[in-house]
Write a structure and sequence with these properties.
It contains one helix and nine strands. It is α+β, with helices and mostly antiparallel strands and 152 residues long.
Length: 152
């Protein structure tokens, strides 16, 4: 059975006004979100928080030996020159990870179950290594090295 609905001119006008209001509200929300994201990414904008964690890979070789390696995750972070950065690093694996960020004069320590925060301005383009001093190479279950890439 087919149903047919009849709408008066007044009802149709109200429907058009309602649809226009919904579209206008959606456009305003989209513009606001885009501007908020742009401000957060802008070098002149607020500090951008980047989350990192300490991670571990563990395996057993065919002769029964346990091997492991630690890493920063994500391993590479990109930022713009002039951007204000807040690195929030959470310790998941490994008891302690003292670290340096070469070329930025930043050092700290990440402990398991704790958050370590370092803030800086990405002022000079280049690639900067974040190196765990406990795991700097394969002989020490590493290399636990990450990269901060500052683009022009």
């Amino acid at each position: 059975m087919t149903k047919v609905y009849v709408m008066s001119q007044k009802g149709l006008k109200g429907l058009k006004i309602g649809a226009a209001a919904v579209l206008l509200a959606g456009a305003a929300l989209l513009f606001w979100e885009r501007e908020t994201i742009r401000a957060a990414m802008s070098p002149a904008g607020p500090e951008r928080t980047i989350q990192l964690v300490t991670g571990e890979f563990k395996s057993t070789t065919s002769d029964g030996k346990t091997i492991e390696a630690y890493r920063w995750d994500p391993g590479t972070i990109y930022m713009k020159k002039g951007e204000r950065i807040r690195l929030s690093i959470y310790g998941v694996n490994g008891a302690s990870h003292p670290f340096i960020i070469e070329g930025l004069n930043i050092k700290g320590e990440v402990k398991k179950g704790k958050e370590t925060v370092v803030s800086f301005r990405a002022s000079k383009p280049g690639v900067y290594r974040i190196i765990c001093l406990t795991h700097p190479d394969m002989a020490h279950n590493g290399p636990m090295v990450g990269y901060l890439v500052i683009d022009e």
